[in-house]
Amino acid sequence: MSDTIADHEHRNPNGVFSTLMANGDWLYLKGEYIKAIDNYSSALTLKPDDKTCFVGRSKCYLKLGQPGSALKDAEASLKEDETFFEGLYQKAEALYFMGEFEFALVFYHRGQKLRPQIQEFRLGIQKAQEAIENCVGSPSSVKLEIKGDLSFLQRDEERAQPITAIQRLTKEKRQGTQKTPRNEKTTKQLLGDFYSDKTYLENLLKDEDLVKGKTKCGERLQDVIQSCLSYLDTCTEFWSQEKPICALDRERKKKCSKPRLSTPSDPAQFLLKSLDDIDAELTSGNAEGSLKKAEEVMKIVQGWSEKEVPNKNEVLGSLHSCIGNALIDLGDLDKALDHYNKDLELAKQCKLPDATSRALDNIGRVYAQTGQFLRAIEFWEKKIPLVRGGLEKTWLFHEIGWCYLELSRHKEARDYGVRSLAAADEIADEKWQINANVLVAQSELKLGNVESCVSHFERALTHAKQQDNDAAMNAIQKVSAKLSHASLHLLF
């Protein structure tokens, strides 16, 4: 029944918005950020000013390494309400990842003042302060005077001049403390695999005939190349500010031993980029490319020592999960299940609740997809204590209840439907309130509890009316008509 409603929802804009938002939230939790962005963008065409939708899309952009786009969406979420704390946090995060640590600190402080109980603001303040100290030294080494116009702390629209002033201050401080300019050796360490790209672009820039040309879009090649080089310079500057200790550690390791050619100079950066590439290939529909990349990275990580990567087993678990996801898209469910089981085994060894939850979720999905509902229930019920968010909770209870309904175990199906409904009520998600009520109604009908069945169908209908969801209302009313015949049959 819930599937029937979902199939018809696209005919009504109000019903579709809730569906798109729920899909976007779920895809974000799964790590499918590009697909999530598509859902949020479609939702925004229906409600262009929805601040929660802007925040959701901003989170996705940040995960994809696009802090500029993340900042735009965060600012859009604050357009109507400057005290919207989720928007403030997203703005602070975007500014932080753009290297604008001072302004990130301002917005972390604003958020903490509004919501002091939220730990993320406190952690944000801490990491922003550490990043600033890495840039300009400890606060005791910089004397600031309280004069001039400080109104930028109150008005976001006037932040252009203060940012320029702060950047000038940090630049002057760096020039005062840095005795010699960064040499190519240091740049090579910081850029890692990107250093060869930088060298290639610099050589292209020396070709006078080439740089005079233009792209198909009319851009001068010189400007394009220079833009790429500027971006790499910005990355170099940011990484030197963010993790100078890591750079020194790599320097010491290089002096002590000759690195293997197959081992990247910075495992952390390599893994982050690789996992993003693997995910991007899968979300773009290239499951084979995603699988190949994941298997290549797996071989590299297996060759690393625990000293090089202290959380080696955790990384391997993530890669097993990625390989399983690619195999699912390729239709090889048996091999996917093997990798998901390995992910679960490593997660348990490392005592990682989130990774354990991820593996149990994936294993349950494979079993449900292949019609092995008892096995799906077995793994999904183990996941229940690890669930945190309300959306994930209502989805999980609904799926377990649906499996019990498929097995004709109607009492268990009803009980999980009730739990799904309670979770949906808690987060006020009308789409899942409809689906959960329908699941309970179906179960009650099978149990012969006609009065309760009618009551839950009526609740589902009420939620559909509140959403102005004509398609859902029509579907529920059709079932109600059939129900009246069933109730007469039970009475006589």
Write the layout of secondary structure elements.
Elements: H1 2-8, H2 13-30, H3 33-46, H4 51-63, H5 67-77, H6 85-97, H7 101-114, H8 119-136, H9 160-177, H10 184-191, H11 195-205, H12 208-211, H13 221-242, H14 244-256, H15 267-283, H16 287-302, H17 312-329, H18 333-350, H19 353-369, H20 373-383, H21 390-406, H22 410-427, H23 430-447, H24 450-466, H25 470-491
Can you summarize this structure?
The chain is an all-alpha fold and 492 residues long. It contains 25 helices and no strands. 37% of the residues are buried.
Number of DSSP strands? 0
Ranges with pLDDT <50 over ≥5 residues?
A: 1-11, 138-181, 242-263, 487-492
Terminal Cα span: 26 Å
In DSSP terms, counting alpha (H) and pi (I) runs of 4 or more, how many helices?
A: 25
Portion of residues in beta strands equals under 5%
> What's the rounded overall pLDDT mean?
76
Q: Helix and strand string, N-terminal first?
A: HHHHHHHHHHHHHHHHHHHHHHHHH
Gyration radius (Cα, Å) is 27 Å
Shape: globular
Structural class based on helices, strands and sheet pairing: mainly alpha
Question: How does the major sheet shape up?
Answer: none
Helix content: over 70%
